[in-house]
Amino acid sequence: KRVADRYLKREVLGEGTYGVVFKAVDTKTGQIVAIKKIRLGAQKEGINFTALREIKLLKELKDPNIIELIDAFPHKGNLHLVFEFMESDLEAVIRDRNIVLSPADIKSFLQMTLRGLVFCHRKWVLHRDMKPNNLLIAADGQLKLADFGLARIFGSPDRRFTHQVFARWYRAPELLFGAKQYGPGVDVWAAGCIFAELLLRRPFLQGVSDIDQLGKIFAALGTPTPAQWPDMFVPPPPLRSLFPNTSDDALDLLSKMLAYDPKTRISAHQALDHRYFTSVPAPTKPALLPRPA
Ligand code: ADP
């Protein structure tokens, strides 16, 4: 079946936050693509112009560590977003018990994640929904951030579909506190949680509700302001005790990515300049990274 005269529809890849994702062949280029069908349900007039303008901006975001938005068009009342097809994602890598992740592999995955963030943050685009299954892995081993900017265009997806609860584990404290103003620090926090997850091979802070999420953060990192609320003060356990086999450089970077105050939290750009990335071992070349069978 053809979509918009150009794409030959193949199998469904999965149900995502915004709708069904299916595989297709772009008959114009022969490229295998993934098409995200976004329900436009409530908006009777079709796609609003703000969304279209924002999507046009996303089409301009081209970087080796950002998944390319190849095309976007309305079809039968749904908005279709066409992306390059990706083989795997970081969640599959972390979960695969047959995969051993060396310190160099972890460094490489984090470096590619931060490079994607730096590129988008430079253009003032936030991701806002970073999690391991949004970090897709191409056939050549490059990690690419997916769904950039969609959270802002289509609204925060978290409460709309139940499977989205996992996004909570990567949510920065300022978001959990309901901040209306926030910045690129929310993506750095999430990248810090993903860094920790690569080290631990399980999600770092698994809250079952937003309040519980804050509790999990405080239990791991201590409460933020002992001066204002002495009775609630929980001295932070040394991060070292939670990550016994991790290098000092890695832990230093992790603690800076998980700084409470978004103003003092390290930026993606500064994080890439951290000595962790220049100390041994060197990050694994993407083509040599382990991948799920
Ligand atoms: P979520 O909203 O839960 O992050 P997505 O909408 O991103 O889910 O994706 C739904 C499914 O489609 C997932 O199984 C994902 O692996 C797959 N998928 C999404 N984008 C691509 C892509 N570019 N290439 C291959 N598979 C993809």
From TrEMBL:
ATP binds at L13, G14, E15, G16, T17, Y18, G19, V20, V21, K36, K37. Belongs to the protein kinase superfamily. CMGC Ser/Thr protein kinase family. CDC2/CDKX subfamily. Coiled coil: none annotated. The keyword Phosphoprotein applies. Its EC number is 2.7.11.22, 2.7.11.23. It comes from the Eukaryota. GO terms for biological process: positive regulation of transcription by RNA polymerase II. Transmembrane segments: none annotated. It catalyses: L-threonyl-[protein] + ATP = O-phospho-L-threonyl-[protein] + ADP + H(+); [DNA-directed RNA polymerase] + ATP = phospho-[DNA-directed RNA polymerase] + ADP + H(+); L-seryl-[protein] + ATP = O-phospho-L-seryl-[protein] + ADP + H(+). This is Cyclin-dependent kinase D-1. The chain holds residues 26 to 318 of 392 of the full protein. Residues 7-277 form the Protein kinase domain. It comes from Spirodela intermedia (Intermediate duckweed). One of its GO terms (molecular function) is cyclin-dependent protein serine/threonine kinase activity. Keywords: ATP-binding, Kinase, Nucleotide-binding, Phosphoprotein, Serine/threonine-protein kinase, Transferase. It is an enzyme of class 2 (transferase). The active site is at D129 (proton acceptor). One of its GO terms (cellular component) is cytoplasm.
